[in-house]
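Protocol step 4 of 6: record predicted structures for both targets in the notebook before any analysis. Target 1:
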Amino acid sequence: MSMKLLFKQRIFSWFDSYDIYDEEGNNLFTVKGELSWGHCLHIMNSVGEHIATVKEVVLTFLPKFELYVGQQYIGCISKEFSLFTPRYNIDCNGWHVDGNFMEWDYRILSGDQVVAMVSKQLFHWSDTYVIEVSDPRDALMALMLVLAIDAEKCSRD
């Protein structure tokens, strides 16, 4: 049974701030950025409890983000050098990410199995993504990867 997450960036906020909803419009997660050297994004559940962090590692040749669930380090995602198609290396879960040339659509894969499909919706005031997760248990990890990729794109632009 798949699950869709609607990922919307808040327009008027000083730092990165996002709301993540399910298909019925229920708030599942809130993401708040922190003033720091590089991006640092804290993920809260629907009742405001801190559950995860995505933190940029600074002073690296290619962008790299560490992933934490609670206070425990679970791995990182780093951008790989490629000419036409954005590619990312994930050092946990055996997952990898492939995206199209315009960088608006991604697939998160485990081997050949699709874990999540990510697409950017155009014509919105702020960044808006739909994350379709094959297994709802993977929703938090998929969200963390999308946040890291979005932060990397924002830094580049």
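Target 2:
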Amino acid sequence: MALDNMKYADSTITINDNIFKSLDIISVNEYLGWYQHWIVKPEEKTCISNLNKLIVISEFGSETLYGNHGPSDIASLWTEEHQEKVYQDQVTMFKRMPALRGTCAWLLVDYRSPKRMHQAYQNGWNRKGLLSDQGFKKKALYILADYYKQK
């Protein structure tokens, strides 16, 4: 079971949901840098739980249209550089989570999603993939690959 029930305060993300008391692993979906802004720098962010259980980040990431390049600091431009920066920031935070035991980027390959209707960038596609719908590698793929190689 994956939930998105976290509290954000300054440099701490706190996971504390009663349902987790019945589970072996805490699994959360977290999209800092995409749906939510970073309040502090990723190297200052810590994710904690008062349940003393292992954590898996079951979803994280951001969207970009393959080949769309530009600034890394403006999410609404959907650039590969922004997606790459989101992954860099996520990895930085992951390294500060002692209870973290796994991550799952959302998602590997862009896929059709009729409700995704941003005409310039989605046009019926979920663009959170590390690979385009044609299999082309986006810049963020290399950030995650390097992180996994270090594990």
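Step 5 preliminary note on target 2. Helices lie at 80-94, 139-150. The chain has one domain: 6-150.
Proceed to step 6 after PI sign-off.
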